[in-house]
Amino acid sequence: MKTLNFLNLNENSVANVVAALNPLLADFQVFYTNLRGFHWEIKGRGFFILHSKFEELYDDVAAKVDELAERILMLGGTPESKYSEYLKQARIKEVSGVSCGHEAIENILDTYKHFIAEERKLIDVANEANDVVTADMLTGYLKEQEKLVWMLTAFNTKSCEK
Question: Which of 122, 161, 94 is CA-nearest to residue 21?
Fold first, then answer.
């Protein structure tokens, strides 16, 4: 028996949602690994703040990875679970060797810019399939990400102290 039989969603319509969720899942998996690297490699001014912030971010991303994979399953799809496949599907790239806080935050901001654009597109795809749950989940991500982008931008701005 299929879960979709109980969700009142059309299998053909949600196939487009699943097809769009899988690359997003891959992006989040690569981002998770990038954040772990930033957490481990950060040095210099702001170490204590950024080390903790990066841990907070990768914990949040890990929860989103699980949520995305479970949503794919609910919609009758199969989430990818091999890192080699994530690297093929991901639209963001692996990053390593970043120890400068400013550089790490710039990478994070660029990644969120990508996520925000992709999630907005995916919300439209979900709405076309009458999949309000996926659209709502992604709207929640956007709300968090927009605030985080504002905060990271403020943190990464050079001080105007004299």
Answer: 122
